[in-house]
Task: structure prediction
Amino acid sequence: MKSTIAVAWILASLFFGLISIAYSQPIFLGEYPMPYENTILFVSSSIDDSCHTLYFEGITSTVTVPLGSFYEPWGYYFSYNSLVIVQQRAGGEGNFEFNPSGVAVLFWLEGDRSIINVSSGFTIGFSFYYCANDPASVEVYSGEDGTGTLLATIPLVQTPPPTDYDYWYSNWVPIGVSFEDTAKSISFVGVANRVGFDNITFCDSIPHDIECYIEVNASANDSTLCPGDSTILHSEVAGEYPPVVFEWWSNPAGFSSDQQNPNTGPFFDSTWFIVQATDSLGCEDIDSVLINTLEICTETSAYPNPFNPDYENVKFCFELTKAGNVTVKIFDVAQKISRTIINDEIYPAGEEQQIEWNGRNGKGDIVANGTYFYIIESNLGEKAINKVSVLR
Result:
């Protein structure tokens, strides 16, 4: 490693720098253990193919990354100290949130400035979002490396910290400038680790927000089920910028998952399952799928219904068409198992059977008043489902 930061400076950066340190050892600069071959920085065209907005997204490494020549294919070259940092919520070191696009921003840890050279030059204007703990400035020059004629200066005031926040750098401000001549470099001037930049836009005095193309489609293995059954949900995405985060929930409430293709678990009423997909740029899309449940899948009855477990049991009646091993379970309205009455016991075919429930759960306590579901199921696929009410 080429250099270190003094311990006192680290302690100050702990609370107010873009890097928030959770350990006491020095931060090393200059060389970073990052997978260069797997790093892709996001850029989009704006106005024409020679003018772009740089979003700094798509970093597959969560460590702080030197920019170097990553934007070289688009004609942008950064000074050696220019870095990209990922916010802590995404697994990185960044002491920031609510930046305008994705989870990564530009900053630096060495020197008093970061420079972008644009070999082909650009005109009209320049803009970006920033967040700063100290006053800073941005200078536009006609030559590379901050040389030639100073075409424009953008003074940057300290941005106020939010009143209710987890990370100090949370108030990101858009700003820009117009000019007439051709510019070939931008110099971001400020205290190291005290200012960050995002959505850097060339050829326009207003920073461009990211364009979203992600689309998610929800589906399921089954569209109609017996009450108490479960199925596999599916979400297919297109136009995304990976990685993608999935969030499932249901209406009526009771189900949630962060898997792309989760199992619903048993449910008893027709239910909408909703999925939201969010990619690394912060773009999101929502879709849903309805799964209907049948009233009763196989003939069964319960009596007395309702019943009072203080002085009586309820009888569940059913008849198998094929002899098999039977299991009987009681579920509450929250779809949680209250008790398993019969577990894998053999019953004959063609005979009416009666199974009693005394209204107690697996702990031996009388259950609360309300509606319960009972499921009678054989190992050969027969299933009987109905409702029973407890009223004391």
Observations:
- Residues 1-16, 20-41 have pLDDT under 50 and may be disordered.
